[in-house]
Specification:
heterodimer, A: Rossmann fold, Rossmann fold, 3 domains, nine-stranded mixed sheet, five-stranded parallel sheet, 40% helix, B: mainly alpha
């Protein structure tokens, strides 16, 4: 696997050649190489470690079956019999257990929910009844599956109904009877898009920031011309209602950790008054991590705002009703995603939700509180500009660093940080939770995580340090720090912790071999200035003799939780 | 009775239907195995470019494109069941001819 290309096993009871082709034709990253499991034997393939589909290392598996393939209880209901609840439950559990087996062989496992065509749910009056309806039976089977598969960190249940509705084509009888392909091409394309979207998020490619225009984007009308009282937003107006729903959609994304910003050509005072005073505004100023409301070039404003937030342009989506502004930002900032935007405001909510680029795969506490953290950062920046010196500023921050071992409770955020961090990253190791957990439990492997806070608030879990010990030598495998706390001597604090822990373990020499990528030069610069001895042809290998202590920065309050073995 | 001009137009539109359908089928095939988009493309028999699943995909795509172009239904499954030499699915040209004749 590379971050750009993954191998995916398709396991199904129907012909999936068209689905495989849909994956191949997907634009964007990651590319997905598909291998198709032997036809028509999904449960056997899932349970069989020796099946040819697992003989090569697969990064992911996508399991998509018809209900008939795993449940005779559902088949019986379709044939007119009453639902046998016990049998349905037992069959759902058996299928879930087979899925769990498959999930152990791959890093990412996806299962599609069970569906049946609408015409197999007849008669309509009985379809959802508890004593025998097909719709009810399928809903129960999906519920049992969800319960059985809950808590498996590398497994995601995907919504087949969403693909059927999105494609507007659904089931195709001719394809089924002639080739055992149940769905029209559009359903497979929608499914492939969803799987790629989740994989992209899991590999750290999910978008983090939506930058929005105001006039005719967040509300209808030009506020500078009509005043905030006359903006089209809410009320008894079709487009006004749609714009409220659009804002609700943005607010929901914000709650999931997607940040919102504003870039608008407007008078800032007038625009902010509209945000503060319009009674139908769903989004308030506190929902935005930053804004540039002025008459300057929007591309320049987008760039400045992302720099201020320390976010890469590849993590940004720009939404604007003006095709000219979209073209300008596309041309000047090609890394920014600038989706085509409909003229019809009633299509705004749907267009936002169909972008499919915010699927992080997992959602940590840091994600949820991301907007709050950036607002705290804005206050820090204001304090920094008013401080007399860097030292004064660092001292005034009252920085606290808490260190604890990698554990189940912090695994989700740790893996997210491991797979997303680019700049302060010594070797840029990428791996899923299961693989990292396995690595951490092996003899001689040390993996710690760092949580940082200061007087303005918490940055959350922002650092990872890992090393492998062999005899009296330790090799740093992971030295990772979120860009949110870079330059506050958390880096030096991490080195202090590593050295102290190594001393406890009897290590004499610690080595750090920098692995260059397109983005991690800041890590090299840090090590070059860290006081560690540089060696190697290009000076990118660093070492420290533990006979010497590595000083803890004086302004840092270090807190070591249980299990860190007195690395003080 | 249709004029010669109307026949030419039907033929031209039928050929476009088939070429678009081939394009649709190519979306369901590996990019390295794309079917040539042309009236000379052979679908069945000697030198055929399509396997059985691709033929079914072509059938469905052609019916869809035909419906969109002419606003009415056509059922091509019986043609697929015929031996290759007798079937309108022998080549892109024979399929287009069949559509044009059906539309007359």
């Amino acid at each position: 696997m590379t971050a750009d290309r993954l191998s995916l096993a398709l396991v199904s009871d129907f012909t999936v050649t068209n689905l495989a082709a849909a994956f191949e034709h997907l634009p964007g990253l990651p590319s997905v190489d598909v291998a198709v499991a032997p036809f028509g034997q999904p449960t056997q393939v899932l349970l069989d470690d020796e099946s040819v589909i697992w003989s090569s290392n697969r990064d992911a598996a996508f399991i998509w079956v018809r209900p008939e393939a795993v449940s005779s209880a559902i088949s019986a209901v379709q044939a007119g019999s009453a639902l046998n609840h016990e049998l349905l439950h037992a069959e759902a559990v058996a299928f879930a257990n087979a899925v769990k087996q498959a999930a152990k062989r791959v890093q990412y496992c996806f299962v599609a929910t069970l569906t049946v065509p609408w015409y197999q749910r007849a008669p309509g009056y009985a379809a959802a009844q508890s004593d025998g309806g097909t719709a009810r039976a399928v809903a129960l089977a999906n519920e049992y599956l969800a319960m059985e598969l809950a808590g498996i960190p590398n497994l995601w249940i995907l919504d087949t109904q969403r693909w059927l509705e999105r494609s507007q084509a659904g089931y195709d009888d001719q394809l089924w009877y002639l080739a055992k392909v149940p769905f029209a091409a559009g359903v497979f394309q929608a499914a492939a898009v969803d799987v790629q979207s989740v994989l992209s998020g899991l590999l750290g490619r999910a978008k983090k920031l939506i930058i929005l225009d105001l006039d005719d984007t967040l509300w209808g009308g030009t506020v500078g011309d009509v005043g905030w009282e006359n903006l089209q937003l809410g009320g008894h107006d079709a487009e006004g209602e749609a714009l409220v729903d659009f804002q609700k959609g943005l607010k929901a994304l914000e709650k999931r950790g997607i940040m919102l910003g504003i870039v608008s050509k407007n008078d800032e005072t007038i625009a902010r008054e509209a945000i503060q005073k319009h009674p139908s505004m769903i989004l308030q100023e506190a929902d935005f991590v930053g804004w540039r409301i002025n008459w300057q070039d929007k591309a320049q404003n987008v760039q400045e705002l992302t720099q201020e937030l320390n976010i890469g342009l590849q993590s940004v989506v720009f939404i604007d009703d003006s095709s000219a502004e979209r073209a300008r930002v596309r041309e000047a900032l090609p890394d920014v995603l600038v989706p085509e935007w409909p003229e019809n405001k009633m299509l705004y909510p749907r267009t936002l939700m169909s972008l499919g680029c915010f699927e992080a795969g997992v959602r940590s506490a840091e994600d949820v509180g991301r907007t709050r953290m950036y607002i705290e950062e804005r206050r820090r920046e204001e304090a920094r500009t008013s401080a007399a010196s860097m030292g004064d500023w660092l001292a005034a921050l009252q920085l606290k660093v808490t260190v604890e071992p990698f554990a189940r409770a912090n695994a989700q955020r740790t893996v997210q940080l491991l797979n997303k961090t680019n700049q302060m990253n010594l070797r840029t190791r990428r791996m899923p939770e299961s693989e990292l957990a396995l690595w951490a439990t092996q003899d001689g492997h040390e993996l710690w995580v760092f949580t940082v806070s200061d007087r303005f608030g918490s940055y959350g879990l922002t650092g990872i340090a890992g090393f492998a010990v062999e005899a009296q030598r330790a090799e740093i495998t992971d030295f990772i720090l979120s860009c949110r706390v870079m330059g506050r001597q958390v880096e030096e604090t991490m080195l202090h912790v590593i050295v102290e822990r190594a001393r406890v373990l009897g290590v004499r020499t610690i080595a750090a071999a920098y692995q260059p990528t397109a983005k991690n030069a800041p890590c090299l610069r840090f090590f070059q200035q860290s006081g560690w001895l540089a060696s190697g042809e290009d000076g990118s290998c660093f070492s420290w003799q533990t006979a010497d202590q590595y000083a803890l920065p004086s302004h840092v309050d270090l807190d070591l939780l249980d299990g860190t073995g007195g690395a003080r | 009775m249709s004029t010669e001009h109307e026949q030419d137009l039907r033929q031209q539109r039928s050929e476009e239907v088939v070429l678009r359908a081939i394009g649709d089928v190519n979306q369901l095939r590996p990019m390295t195995d794309a079917v040539p988009v042309g009236l000379a493309t052979v679908f069945r028999g000697e030198g055929a470019a399509l396997d059985s699943l691709a033929l079914v995909n072509l059938l469905v795509a052609t019916e869809d494109e035909y419906r969109q172009e002419f606003g009415r239904e056509i059922s091509l499954a019986p043609e697929l069941a015929l031996p290759a030499e007798q079937s309108s699915f022998k080549s892109a040209q024979t399929l287009a001819d069949h559509l044009a004749a059906h539309t007359a």
